[in-house]
Design goal:
Elements: H1 3-27, H2 32-62, H3 64-90, H4 102-107, H5 112-133, H6 140-165, H7 170-196, H8 200-230, H9 234-252
Helix pairs in contact: 1-5, 1-6, 1-7, 2-3, 2-6, 2-8, 2-9, 3-5, 3-8, 5-6, 5-7, 5-8, 6-7
């Protein structure tokens, strides 16, 4: 099977967690503690993936310029877009609670369409990670796909609850997340093809951009949810996720 097609399928699998989360959130919501533990573990895995599969690779092929510029640039672009989405109602898109605290709800009411746009914003750099990780036939893209899958579950859960409160139908909610899941697969497939023909310096720059955006996303959206649900155990669970991903990345080669 062509590597690009593999990347697309893994991207589709990681994006399908949004749909799975929406179905669970619609019919049988999980406890916040369980989802927060999944989030903490996924955050650790993602940090490991961006450290060893993106930044390290970018450093070896591009040096300090592409790494520093891309890393900060990716974080800056993500932060600006995330602030705009937060003001539109996607501030808590990775929260597993169906109803947030009163103060947060008053300051930033939930909006289903903004949640969907937030999922797309998060998914762009994540899909790049998956596509790039599979370029050389390694397991890096598979590790990233697993981490993205874990981080997407709470997003689907919270979105389903929010859209249901808005009066959206089940067909609308599930259709929307199915489309976003498909877009994740397409993005991973396209990213793999696009990166395959670029010069190493350009690949390094885009890798660093993706890594910066993902790290900003982890701190802005995943860490607060993980800590709120697991408290003093969040750090340990994240470290466990980091270690598992690191061992898998070493085992691949």
């Amino acid at each position: 099977m062509p590597v690009a097609l593999q990347a697309g399928l893994w991207g589709l699998l990681s994006g399908s967690a949004l749909l799975i989360g929406a179905v669970v959130g619609w019919f049988a919501p999980l406890s916040q503690r369980v989802i927060a533990a999944i989030m903490a573990f996924g955050a650790g895995v993602l940090i490991s993936a961006l450290s060893f599969e993106l930044i390290d690779e970018a450093w070896r092929h591009g040096g300090v310029g592409p790494v520093a510029g891309g890393f900060l640039g990716g974080a800056a672009v993500y932060t600006l877009l995330n602030r705009w989405l937060a003001a539109s109602g996607a501030k808590h898109r990775k929260r597993s609670e169906a109803v947030h605290r009163d103060k947060d709800r008053e300051q930033c009411p939930s909006n289903g369409n903004a949640l969907a746009l937030g999922a797309l914003l998060d998914g762009i750099p994540e899909s790049i990670v998956i596509g790039v990780g599979l370029l050389k036939g390694g397991a890096g893209g598979l590790v990233a796909a697993g981490a993205v899958f874990l981080s997407n579950l709470p997003e689907g859960l919270s979105s389903a609850a929010g859209m249901r409160k808005e009066g959206r139908s089940a067909a609308y909610v599930f259709g929307l997340w199915a489309a976003i899941a498909a877009s994740a697969g397409i993005a991973a497939w396209f990213g793999n093809i696009a990166f395959a023909g670029l010069a190493p310096a350009w690949v390094a720059t885009i890798q660093a951009v993706a890594a910066g955006a993902i790290l900003a996303m982890i701190v802005d959206t995943m860490v607060p949810e993980a800590f709120e649900g697991t408290r003093d155990y969040a750090g340990f669970i994240a470290v466990a996720g980091f270690l598992v991903a690191f061992l898998l990345s070493r085992w691949k080669g």
